[in-house]
Model the fold of this input.
Amino acid sequence: MQTVLKYLSFDNEEFNDEAACRAHEKRVIHKRLIGLTRSEIEGALAGEIPEIADALETVGVRIMRARIANRDLKRPRNAALRLTHQPEEESAPADDRRQEAEYWQASIDRSAAE
Done:
């Protein structure tokens, strides 16, 4: 008798190694969004369902990049300019979190491009 370790992706594809499984899941992450309910989306936005939140973020970035490449966005986002601009009045906590998230996303995008 032989024990075999297999990896199963979220869309039920079977793989022999973890790296291939993760690469497949990354490639088809948009499939995770098919058929979501309102409560699942709300849960992802509230941070209760991180797998769906990750899928939403990843697909959102892909859409944004495609729109920038097709010149569908009138003003491409430039996180570096927003972070150097300091408003005269103190920003609200939500603004700080948004700016921090944009900073980290720009950092991730730069490392992915290298």
